[in-house]
Write a structure and sequence with these properties.
Length: 126
């Protein structure tokens, strides 16, 4: 079992930056592909970014590409999401998820992930 805890959310003005953290306990995250999903007010939860367990390749939704950076620190058992040039439409609850069975074609599918955190709120004011 892997327990995931997100942190780093908060209120920021449009154009600002935040860094989210996803800290794992129970087992090492290094053997997991880890993703960030988000759910805006009144919207479905959607894929934002992912980093593969092998090689560390990263993938992004078009809506965040060029603004968000996902990275991992295996020594700290933590994955980060650096969010820059934030927009009001980035507002929502951000969840990290982890799984060991991910392949490229399933990277954005919520059902492909085994473990989920409780989420952290990000609010971008315009």
């Amino acid at each position: 079992q892997v327990q995931l805890v997100e942190s780093g959310g908060g209120l920021v003005q449009a154009g600002g930056s935040l860094r989210l953290s996803c800290a794992a306990s129970g087992r090492s995250l290094s053997s997991n592909t880890v993703a960030w999903f988000r759910q805006g007010p009144g919207k479905e939860r959607e894929f934002a970014a992912a980093i593969f367990r092998s090689g560390g390749n990263t993938y992004y939704a078009d809506s965040v590409k060029g603004r968000f950076i996902i990275s991992r620190d295996n020594a700290k058992n933590t994955v980060y999401l650096q969010m820059n040039s934030l927009k009001s439409e980035d507002t929502g609850v951000y969840y990290c998820a982890a799984g060991t069975r991910l392949i490229l074609s399933t990277i954005s599918q919520q059902t492909a992930y085994d473990y989920w955190g409780q989420g952290t709120q990000v609010t971008v004011s315009s």
